[in-house]
Write a structure and sequence with these properties.
115 residues, five-stranded mixed β-sheet, 4 helices, disordered C terminus
């Protein structure tokens, strides 16, 4: 999973654009990023959008986790009045690897990074 954060100053908003494969672990890794974006509330930032529209694969559990965050009150999520939106495709794209878990498969690593 790759995440690109776009900050727009007028109006103040942030978009976390996800490419690659979004899994439950990837969704959980986004929570600290979302919380850090909440620190920008002094700049007028009021909304963070997580866009999954460019993702190659969206795991249903990962999407459910993000949607669960979306249903939390903004103050409990970031400690600030920050709204979280999740944009997802109508039909979740399936994993092109057929669901193969490379790290668990014993195929090893490349450059010290688990596949």
């Amino acid at each position: 999973m790759n995440a690109l954060i776009r900050l727009d100053l007028e109006p103040a908003a942030a978009v976390i654009e996800i490419t690659g494969c979004l899994t439950l672990g990837g969704s959980r890794a986004l929570l600290p990023v979302i919380r850090r974006l909440g620190d920008l509330r002094e700049t007028g930032l009021h909304c963070v959008t997580v866009s999954l529209l460019s993702a190659v694969h969206v795991d249903a559990e990962g999407l459910a986790y993000l949607q669960g965050l979306n249903s939390m009150s903004p103050d409990s999520l970031t400690g600030s009045p920050l709204k979280l939106r999740v944009q997802a495709p109508d039909r979740l794209p399936e994993c092109p690897s057929g669901g193969l878990d490379f790290a668990a498969s014993g195929l090893g690593t490349i450059g010290g990074t688990d596949l």
